[in-house]
Amino acid sequence: MSRRRHSIATACLSGLLEDKLDAAAAAGFDGVELFVPDLLGSPEPPEVIARRCADLGLAIDLYQPVRDLEGLPPDAFAAALRRVDHALDVMARLGTTTALVCSAVDPRGVDDDDLAAAQLAQVADRAADRGMRIAYEALAWGRHVNTWDHSWRIVERADHPALGLCVDSFHLYSRGGDPAGLRDVPGEKIFFLQLADAPHLAMDVLPWSRHHRLFPGQGDFDLTTLVAHLDAAGYDGPWSLEVFNDVFRQADPRPAAVDARRSLLGLAEDLAGTPRPRLGGTAFVELATDPGTSGEVTDALAAFGFARTGEHRRKPVSLWEAGGARLVVRERLPDDRAGTAVAGLAVRSPDPEGLARRATDLLAPREELPHAGDEAELRAVRAPDGTLLFCCPERPEPGGDDFWPGDFAPTGTIPADGPVRGIDHVALTPPYDLVAEAELFCRTVLGLAPVAEPTEVVAPFGVVRSRLFADDAPDPVRVVLSSSLVRRGGWAPGVPAPQSVALAVDDVEAVARAAAAAGLALLDVGPNYYDDLVARGVVDAAEAARLREHRVLVDADGGYRHVVTEVLGGRVFLEAVQRTGDDRGYGAADAPVRMAAQRRARHAGG
Amino acid sequence: MSRRRHSIATACLSGLLEDKLDAAAAAGFDGVELFVPDLLGSPEPPEVIARRCADLGLAIDLYQPVRDLEGLPPDAFAAALRRVDHALDVMARLGTTTALVCSAVDPRGVDDDDLAAAQLAQVADRAADRGMRIAYEALAWGRHVNTWDHSWRIVERADHPALGLCVDSFHLYSRGGDPAGLRDVPGEKIFFLQLADAPHLAMDVLPWSRHHRLFPGQGDFDLTTLVAHLDAAGYDGPWSLEVFNDVFRQADPRPAAVDARRSLLGLAEDLAGTPRPRLGGTAFVELATDPGTSGEVTDALAAFGFARTGEHRRKPVSLWEAGGARLVVRERLPDDRAGTAVAGLAVRSPDPEGLARRATDLLAPREELPHAGDEAELRAVRAPDGTLLFCCPERPEPGGDDFWPGDFAPTGTIPADGPVRGIDHVALTPPYDLVAEAELFCRTVLGLAPVAEPTEVVAPFGVVRSRLFADDAPDPVRVVLSSSLVRRGGWAPGVPAPQSVALAVDDVEAVARAAAAAGLALLDVGPNYYDDLVARGVVDAAEAARLREHRVLVDADGGYRHVVTEVLGGRVFLEAVQRTGDDRGYGAADAPVRMAAQRRARHAGG
């Protein structure tokens, strides 16, 4: 099947109309829905807008919305027809042929399908006279028509070739609608498909629709099933995004448009049943460090049992290893003020080149990394936040060479046997306006899936929402995305939610003892926390005393035990995690006390 | 009646426990509710926390919450009693005597009032043994007990002197509860009152409660009636704020605590029926201008018919007058980079000193303005955003001296008779995290009331929420507060929502002609907007042509006609408004096209 056309409503994006069109074209969209307020806000006559779209390779697939047309008393319908005539005039000047008509909310409207069908047929007559057509959509809050099947009954009754359906996934799913019946609608009567995802929210549909829609794959709606039914019906029009979201409406439209189109590419994969990429665990994590505080990071690694096993032959980059865990520590150049941060995540794959190609197909820019002589050619793409995603080969047989033999000169140091087994997870902290994009990147490019619903905790400097993404391999890649719900103003200087690298360990108390022996101050949250563990019956008093001595935190149900460092280099901390049973946590319940203690340690330290 | 004690839950404020306590004490609170997670996040033992509170003059009025105690099967209740014993131990160390027990959400709980009463009585026995007491609160989402009257039936049934009610205004009003019955509860059985306001939101009570509570006077709940009933019942405990709000939870706790306490002072005024201050209109607006672009502002004023009537004797400040409108234009010092902005709002009052004193009673800091010789002593307080609020005498009889005869040297210029009558309104644009505080300031200090529900419009760079506040005097003081719902990141450089000063005029087209004659470019939104006015039947084609020629915008229903300038000095625009009938608008519906055109004009200009 040829690729479906991808379209996007201008209402999804921020900026002036010209900003939106430029962004949509740059992201590879084929067309737009022109949202009337964007036209009204433009000083250009419709012909000029049409030319601009054509120059950018964008069709104007839909003119929208026209409201409150059907089921009206005669005088109101006469006024409505004047609005229709104007809309058709503008459409002619734009060179577009399909108008979206939303089901009426007008309090004068009556619940009379015959009247609605007759009036819509009149509207369709006028459209047909000009070679145009009307796509009728049931708003979830329409006064009398608010389900897709009701809108279809009216379209059937009108039986007019220029009148068809517009199916909107939000209006359908937000009212618990079932898309299965769409299979039985003749494909040629489905004039348009508007796609939006959304989180399940227990709130009125209208504000839910106007503020909280998301791009497909970012929310909870089953859009794959919907498009499968539309495929079965024979719908061959565009997949068009109509996503009203407060965050996207104020965000740079260029990355937002890329995020939007990635969502459609992901949906196409889901529909085709494309298997998710098979991963083989986390090969390494790259930390970029601030030259002034690099020692904070490397001292902590050493205290956790890591050995510096290699020194890059040409760059201030060192390789640290412990058990199956590898960290690459790159000291930033003196004039690079970006600070200590997770700069790269390397995943193993049986087909690294295929994984990288797939990422670029999903609009992640390929990063050409200079490499010389016998250095490994690392395949990498850049995530939306600038983090590099390295695609590495699978782990070699014991004794075999790994993928970068030439890059690092061995230091001769061999890590001692210790409790560290590998990388448990990496926790990243995008700002709240970039979380949906980061989640979609993890889901599509890496094929990770959310492990559970998001958690929200009240941290000392604001509410923090987190979610764990992972694949289901025996050695999973796990990424936690955490962000403050709101953040503005000068309070809470510094980074309130630092990133972390969590190491999987067999014995967290052994790590604590080794760290103490090495002089590393693990985070101490104080006695109240341990008294509470006992009061809640999580551990007994003797165990609590031992945990406190070792500074071990115990997340909610007790299956996730961890020690954490203070914040290193201003933005990252290390964590050693011992899991029991099939624990799927990531320390979310502990985050508030952990963050308070980290803040106090920072104050004490400086 | 002696002043009621004011208390605040530590959960209302952002930061570490010590930040919260400092902020509460500095704002004049008498006590706090200690939220258990704040205790767990503190490394200090309870005794040290108690001492810190005592040193700050803060009582610990409540320890909260203890959850899931009542209606439980025996084994679960035994575990719950262990938690109770721990809580009572901690309370003893804190020196606090009242614990909040929330109605159970535990799925093991049974709907059995006798069991619940018996178990709560057991808990109360343990508290009584230590001289403590239990305040039982119905959570709005409690499994079996979720209304205050149900919680009261259980407390009555338990009939234990150490068991009483905690009344929480959110839990009561969010479920549509009626507080009238509280009059009949014996005052000594009401152990505690938690106050929170909230906007009416059609969503589940739990997320509504956890994210969207507001301080009294910032939302839609009738808290005055509630406290009146509790007064009638004889409740004499503290008024305590328990406000969970995502914005406050990440905001600087010092101004947030002041905002919080102002809300209780306002509530006390409402309860006492204190009359709102009588105002006599807007005396003047002070604009601070950037020296480099000062001429943009003064040229526009001149084009609108203003004359520079006075020059300050000692400062780079000029007085501009037209009809009853006065603007004071103060050129900033060259090293003051704050940019052009509304720096002051002056209102007239029959008792300026009383108004200023009232403002300081409501925690607005008095601003001592240096004045020399025969200069007027201007009374001023500072609003939370730094704007000065001047309290001026009423307008003198015609021919009489106004309040600042000595400050300005007359230039000899007299404004020509023109269409400008006075100041229609001032529109300010606080960032979204400061809107609730700004609204409360307007409501309490100035006694302004919201004129209608807030409007939300989709502006080119994000959704903007606005609300008009005004008094009901013949010459009203009107303030519009507008803010973007979300704003983060580097898109939309410059200020997306500029402030404005709107002038009331008799004939907006005459203003437009005069402005054109003076060479002032009024904002031109282009033809699509006018075509749409005709299509919607707001005006006919001939009138639309004339409006377009004069660049007049017509808000939603046609009663508000205005011309606006481009953005002057980077942040402020002027507007001339002609109202017909009892129009109560402020150009909200036009804001998106206006903002798009202003943005385009800025691009074209620079």
From TrEMBL, chains A, B:
Q: Which organism is it from?
A: Actinomycetospora atypica
Give the record's family classification: Belongs to the bacterial two-domain DSD family.
Arranged from A to Z, the UniProt key words for this protein are:
Lyase, Metal-binding
Name the residues that bind a divalent metal cation.
137, 168, 194, 242
Reactions the enzyme catalyzes? 3-dehydroshikimate = 3,4-dihydroxybenzoate + H2O
Which PANTHER family does this entry report, sorted A to Z?
HYDROXYPYRUVATE ISOMERASE (PTHR12110), XYLOSE ISOMERASE-LIKE TIM BARREL DOMAIN-CONTAINING PROTEIN (PTHR12110:SF21)
Which co-factors does it depend on? Answer: a divalent metal cation
What Gene3D superfamilies is this protein classified in? 2,3-Dihydroxybiphenyl 1,2-Dioxygenase, domain 1 (3.10.180.10), Divalent-metal-dependent TIM barrel enzymes (3.20.20.150)
PROSITE patterns found in the cross-reference section: VOC
Short name of any one Pfam family annotated for the protein: AP_endonuc_2
Q: HAMAP family under this entry?
A: DSD (MF_02238)
Q: Return the protein name.
A: 3-dehydroshikimate dehydratase
